[in-house]
């Protein structure tokens, strides 16, 4: 039987693909996401709550991020203004494995009965069971957007009609998925569904605040160091992902025993020495090797290798130039993004990254405390559009320091994303050894976004 904290109350939309999740409900007393609170009081219905949805890279298995998400949950519980944040980490479709300790197979959850399920088709939820696999990048994006709508409607019905406030965090190509999710939600936000029972309102049921994109591979992946290697290989023939799946399946299910296969994976990847001790929110201590366990599951789960390589091939051809408009990037301060790039990231083209920073990044004044202040701040300059090291000369034009949040303020600049280039040597695959370090940073960024979004809403209320 699953522990209460691992029960995901909203469940999943009908016909949603089997999915592993890591779920940390809010520590705030009276949270609507608590599995132990019923019925819901009026005071609960008036309480602001936030959901952080975490989207992995490729391979899309959420198990790689357990240490990161566990630490982030602890920091949220200890932080000021973040106790109301629940964390949902979700695997990409096609990477589900039954032996994991994550929950989330829709077929195993509580029955999803009532008006939500009855209206699912009316609201346009996709019957994913009718779609052939492997899943495409757009499908990965759309199904997560639909899941957010499902959770948002569940929350709305229990909160007296309020929208759930949502933040996104994503890694690598997951950043592209996150931006496409926002694009999808913005497009359907303008749609109103009408039936014989009347108008059912706007379909987007969540209030998106923005989020943190970590080592984002969101433009020109094929131009990156690794992209130049994998693009020609994956382009040789469309059957390569399937053939690789057959080969890996034969190796791990026919040639090797499970114990020998796991041993070889650990030796080959170097993950056999990465066992770590972690403390959960209830104080229990456990020793795990998430990197090795998840990698072994990835290689032995039916279809996972093919799904990963199919996505990788599509990434090389689809993820090119920045195609998102200012609204997606946060025009007017409706959304706030933090992008954290790696130095010498082999999955990111430096030239394309610098162009993105130049065109989309916020300008900063010298000496200001950056969003990466926890790591003593910053980053390479690209024509004045990226954070610089403290006490350097002023960069940008018409930019001034704004207190108390130390956010640079200038004409048409305040709403733009913070774009940071790491100078600490953190690797693209931070989740393997540096999950707790990144959790410290993300906790600060998310806390700042929540605080500033609250101030913006307060200013709007004051104006009205």
Which characteristics define this entry?
single chain; 464 residues; alpha/beta; 7-stranded mixed sheet; two-stranded antiparallel sheet; 13 helices; disordered N terminus
What does the model show?
This protein is α/β, with parallel strands linked by helices. The protein is built from 13 helices and 13 strands. The protein has helices at 42-45, 66-78, 115-118, 137-158, 174-188, 225-234, 240-255, 258-269, 290-300, 304-318, 326-329, 350-360, 435-463, and strands at 21-24, 50-55, 85-90, 164-171, 192-195, 198-202, 206-214, 276-279, 285-288, 336-341, 400-402, 407-409, 418-421. The strands form four sheets. Strands 1-3-2-4-7-10-13 form a seven-stranded mixed beta sheet, sandwiched between helices. It has a two-stranded antiparallel sheet with strand order 5-6. A two-stranded antiparallel sheet has the order 8-9. Helix 4 (137-158) crosses helix 5 and helix 6 crosses helix 10 (304-318). It is globular. It starts with 20 loop residues before the first strand and ends with a helix. 46% of the residues are buried. The model is unreliable at 1-5, 105-113, 192-202 and 365-411 (pLDDT under 50).
